Amino acid sequence: MAKQAKQLVIQSRYVYNSEIQTCPHCGTLLQPQAYYQWRKTVQQLTGVAYIAHRASECVNSECIPVGRMYPSARAQSVTLPGCTYGRDVIAQIGWWRERQHWDRWQIHQALQTQVQVSEREIDYLYTRYEALRGCLEQLKTPALRRIAQERGGLLLTLDGLAPEGASEQLWVVRELQLNITLVSAWLSKVDHLSLAALLKPVIALELPILGTVSDKQPCLEKALDLACPAVPHMWCQSHYLGNAMDPVYERDLAIKTELRQGIRKEIRPIVAEILSQNEDGDCTPQLVSGALADQPLPPPAEPLPIEPVQVVRELVADLKQALGRKGRAPFNLSGVPMFADLLALQNTMGECLQLAEEPHLRSLYATLSRTLPNYATPFKEVEQAQTWVKDIAAILDAPLPTQNDPGPGADAVARQVAHYLGALADQPTLSPWLTQTRRDPFALTDRYWTGLFPCYDIPGLPRTNNELESLFGQTRRQFRRRLGISQLREPILRHAAWTILQIEASSSAELQQELERIDVEHYQRERSRYEKRQEQFHHRHRWRHRRDAVLQQRLADWRQAVLRC
After folding, report:
1. Which long-range contacts (CB under 8 A, 24 or more apart) does 164-172 make?
2. Are β-strands 286-289 and 180-187 bridged in parallel, bridged antiparallel, or unpaired?
3. Residue 66: per-residue pLDDT
4. pTM for this one?
5. Which of 165, 212, 335, 474 sits in a 20 to 30 Å window from 425, CA-based?
6. Strand ranges (DSSP E) for 33-103?
């Protein structure tokens, strides 16, 4: 569908000049520019405004920052770079999402009378709100010195969220008395050195620490002893109980992951050797948010020529990603797509080896070639059984009746299901497992028969109660985000470093005033950290949805690398 241009009627016009009249360095009267630094049409909750910004410049040739532009803080507080919506709109969206737990559709409906915005744009504006919220947390830093002076020191809590599959862990350092997130960082390697590095910004404040509360992991215990040895540490009892349950969980998982464990056992030395060639021992955490995370951004590095070892390393990362496949009951299997991923990787490695030999790549290829054929038949049987269920689900996905369209009716859908089950019963030469599995749909359908089809005769009767369950699930996820509980899904892992931050505003208007305090440079640094985190999930998304394109790129990179050597 073609994108439709917004029909905006400008209701007011504003031209903002710099609030600074004299140069703060030399005292010379600043010269306003004769042109606009930027101008845009901005949609606000109160109407559409034309905003123009004219900066001022120091013209004193003897001043050290000669030619420096001094922008208008008021103009920058109206909106954000690259955005045509006011900060008041962003604050309102954040308030509805955080405090009232509205979804995208509800927010879109509520904004229709005030601004022209699409449903998808609601998500984009919310990401800007998350970056602004990170900036708000950093503005609370001066309160740390006040609380340390009033109460004698800081109380810290350290916690890490369990990873999803092969993901990193999000570790958070919070001050309990002020309820401030001091530092949050994703750690790809959790050891006492990386955790001690996580505490360095807190130690650098040179404020007394009264105590800490955390899980009693051996590496964390060593990190606390290394970073603050004289501070008493409280170990979390809930984590103690959770660790006691780990062997039970691992035993349950072992039955499902037989293939994965077998491959990992054989490739572990090769993977360790390949990855060790890329690491220089630096385990510095990647700071993404928190009161102390605002640091100058390093200059972008120049891209280096592609080397064969880099392609091997990326193929190993693809292999680890494939082995980390997770499913979701009942329809999203993990073993079948994992097996398909491994077969695709095996083929790509074989094509790379036809171009040039490499010992590590040859070992990985040999391991997959030796192991995967043993599991081809079992996975094919699983796919066949899954196809039976999908076919029945497709029949039941018939249109529901409305007031204007009665639909196919319950009898027609029931006949289609009966015909399919009859054809299934006539299939010969099935394996013993499939023969046993084929009996389950007959018995299950017989028990559910009278309750499968009324929705096709009664308008408005839904086919499932998933909508209500989704509402309950959304409520539980809101609690997870607020309490920092583990077992979070991928969207939470993408945004958890910002969603854990708390807002103290009592109304959307107060929240808007808080967001207007954030200067543009501060926001851009936080936004850069936000986008850097999201970019790390780009590989996962491309692997799951465009696997062949990823592998073709690996092959092209390999060809370029070996031909250049």
Report:
1. 164/326, 164/488, 164/489, 164/490, 164/493, 165/324, 165/325, 165/326, 166/320, 166/321, 166/323, 166/324, 167/490, 167/493, 170/493, 170/496, 170/497, 171/195, 171/198, 171/285, 172/290, 172/484, 172/497, 172/500
2. antiparallel
3. 67
4. 0.56
5. 335
6. 38-44, 47-54, 56-57, 69-70
